[in-house]
Design brief:
single chain; mainly alpha; 93% helix
Length: 115
Amino acid sequence: MNKYMKRHEKLISELLKERRDIDFLKKYNKEQIGIIQHERLIHLLVTLFFGLIFFISVLFAVVYEKLVLSSLAGLMLVLLIPYIFHYYRLENGVQKWYKIYNDMILGDRENKDSE
């Protein structure tokens, strides 16, 4: 996913430098934001699910004092941490794409005002 996001940012940056069709770039970037927002939503749900399972397994491990439940809690924590980092990267990527989109709109308005 990170390669995809970096490739998109590089493509948009190069096309903006070349002053390609700004309307097409705005539309394309907005569609890509929608795709990444969907991906972000799915990862948020998975992260919340693993977090819930982690807290439930910790609660059961404390109440029943079983080693198996403690192991389950540890496994859920090991799975939860990478999901949190991945979601964090997705969130930052989407915020960056919003900024690119806003810059395109503001730059396009400035160009139209100067004409």
